[in-house]
Design goal:
Rossmann fold, seven-stranded parallel beta sheet, 2 domains, 12 helices, elongated
């Protein structure tokens, strides 16, 4: 039976897009978890009213939250990643799950290439060199080119494939690792991440975060990438063993890194902040005006479909 949308209680877990917040507020009965001083007190008051949860890369829907919402029907995440949602618990309880794939593919892929260029060409350090007035005393250091390099991609899904296409335009050769070999592509497949790292100069992390992929980039992978290698991470922070990455950078066992994500966001290790061979972004891979609007519209559309008894646009569960 379809439900009147204005009667549907939707819980946002954290501040996201102001546009998304406005659209949810216009269509549904919106609850904002972060505005309550006590999560327990909030749920005691409103748990029975909430039929949907909208999460993101910061706070999704863990088993505890799902169990506390007896009438929950859908979790819609304002992201493509699902690592903040307990999918098994959702399946167990028959709760639908939707994400926002495709909409952010271009922006995240652009960010990966931008990080590679910025890291190899030391764009941020050179910007500081000019701003500090040092140029008048001599030229900036020589850097390394991006075009023609060998690029390894961990995870050749939508985003990984889009990164590969962009890198090809720079004359790069492409290798990849994924759960299985992809058909009808000319890239070199490596079943082992260490082998992939040993055969590329730039390693780009683009896979989903699961228990199997947590710290998929470890000491062995970093060692195989080597002292002339560059690591780019636009996936999730926990895909990389952060202490091992820092050690490799400090000990010159890795040439540099471009990072949009970190293990304990928004906390960034102090050791990374002083390194001029590292480019640091604040998890902004998909943060453009166009893409955030598209993601928000997709979240709303999935919620509307659920409560109007229509097929979800991008179902996961």
């Amino acid at each position: 039976m379809a439900t009147k949308l204005e009667d549907v209680g939707v819980l946002m877990t954290s501040p996201m897009s102001s546009y998304l917040e406005q659209e949810l507020n216009n269509r549904f009965k919106l609850f904002k978890l972060w505005e309550s001083p006590s999560k327990t007190q909030f749920l005691d008051c409103y748990a029975d009213s909430i039929l949907a949860v909208v999460g993101d890369t910061k706070i999704g829907a863990d088993a505890e939250l799902i169990e506390s919402l007896p009438h929950l029907r859908i979790v819609a995440t304002y992201s493509v990643g699902l690592d903040k949602i307990d999918l098994d618990k959702c399946r167990e309880k028959g709760i639908r799950v939707a994400n926002t794939p495709d909409v952010l593919t271009d922006d995240v892929s652009d960010t990966a290439i931008g990080l590679a260029l910025a890291t190899l060409r030391k764009i941020c350090a050179c910007d500081g060199f000019v701003r500090s007035g040092l140029w008048k005393y001599g030229d900036f250091q020589l850097c390394s080119k991006f075009s023609g390099k060998s690029v390894g991609i961990i995870g050749l899904g939508r985003i990984g494939s889009a990164i590969a296409k962009r890198a090809e335009a720079f004359g790069c050769t492409i290798g990849y690792n994924s759960r299985s070999k992809k058909h009808n592509i000319n890239y070199t497949y490596y079943s082992n991440v260490v082998d992939l790292a040993a055969n590329c100069q730039i390693l780009i992390v683009s896979c989903a975060l699961t228990e199997e992929t947590r710290h998929i980039v470890n000491r062995d992978v970093i060692g195989a990438l080597g002292p002339k290698g560059i690591l780019i991470n636009i996936g999730r922070g926990a895909l990389v063993d952060e202490p091992e990455l820092i050690s490799a950078l400090l000990e010159d066992r890795l040439a540099g890194a471009g990072l949009d994500v970190f293990e304990n966001e928004p906390v960034v290790p102090e050791a990374l902040l002083g390194l001029d061979n590292v480019v640091l972004l604040s998890h902004v891979g998909s943060d453009t005006v166009e893409t955030t609007k598209g993601m928000a519209d997709l979240v709303v559309a999935n919620l509307e479909a659920c409560f109007l008894n229509k097929p979800l646009l991008t179902p996961v569960v």
